[in-house]
Known about the structure:
By secondary structure, the protein is an alpha+beta fold. It has helices at residues 135-139, 158-161, 210-224, 255-259, 262-265, 267-289, 349-365, 389-398, 410-423; strands at 3-11, 18-20, 27-30, 37-38, 49-54, 57-62, 69-71, 74-76, 78-80, 86-89, 92-100, 167-168, 171-179, 183-190, 195-202, 236-240, 243-249, 302-304, 310-312.
Amino acid sequence: MAQEGRLKVVEGFVRDKLIRLPSDRVFVIGRDHDCDMPVMSRRISRRHAQITCRNGVYAIADLESKTGTTINARKVTSSVLRHNDMIQVGDLKIRFLMEDADKPTQAEEEAPKPIIPRPQPLPPPPAPSEEAPAPDEAAQPAKPESALIELPRPAFSEEELALVGQTINDIRIIAAVNKGRRMVVYKGIQASHNRVVAMKFLRAEWSNNAEMVNWFVTGAQRAAGLRHEDVIVPLGGGRDGDRKYIYTLFMDDNALGRFANARRDGLLSAKRALESLVHVARALEFAESKKAYHLGIRPTKILFDENRHAKLNGLGFDNTTSAPGPDLPLDAPAYLAPEQLGADAAPGHATDIFSLGATFYYMLTGVHPKRDVRQRIPSPKLVNRDAPASLCRIVEKMIEPDPEERYRSYGQMLHDLRWALRGEAWPHGPAH
């Protein structure tokens, strides 16, 4: 039976990925997005190494990288690859395997996904038009084609939908509303307190996984100790059969897109985005005082209460890239700070400031941030020309690739945020 070369990620950003190596062309590993295996790490060169195949024999060659390429802990410039060889490029360790060509690489048969999925491309600037828009078109600003990229609606299993209508503890479940990598979220009514709650169950497939159960229980306990008005805090929890759950006040998951898209809705939504940022920054400042960091901030982690006040979700849980569970969502890597991709980095408040800045970028532009090979994200002004300059300067400082160039403290950042709230000429009328 014919055999082919494959790479298995042993240590790095995405572990246990199994990738087919082509036999008819060069396979390049590097930091550039156009590489066959793009890995955003400061220890990996733009084009770090390449693998070629001739007559069924695979060989690797270093492309004059800064940190070099090693095979079985021996530095090489080029080397023939043998089954089970351990390749290291920067902080990524990959095992070379020769396996049957008919054996699937994953449970699903699909092309390998990049180590860092490409964020959505920035939309081209609109072409100038010689004709004035029709009155109806002029009345409302056009929504950019790529703005507010909608995530697919979750598909619930029959087992998950069977919980709707049941009463657990004193909570009557009335709808299944969301489904994440680790949890299924339901809307419920807690009769004893006459309030609407979000009931969050650990997904059934993880209920007997000790590592995942520990992640859930430990995170819930930590989150319960981080009580702040701008944080979504567990109100209680329990067990239903084999599955564990917690519940919180119910929030509007899609509020960030509806209430804070400044590119679509103009200056008023820019103010809402800024106000939301102040609330989340206050939550993070409080968490830092308790020696806690989020390390997973992105638009889906900011929810809104019935008064449209922003609150931070997920604080207290392990949101790092090494936490147990499935791969990150496609949009998540766009919001990771560069130091989260380095092996020796110690994430802290500067890391959360970067992710919050990237989220603010999304609020102002309606698109996921895209970075160049030097980890720089362009100013939101290049995407949304109407974004206030004061807000763009704040974002630019928050998303500096070098942590030392970002805000040194939340107090310093909050000073600038509140100054921008006072200093801009916002529209008259209520902000919400």
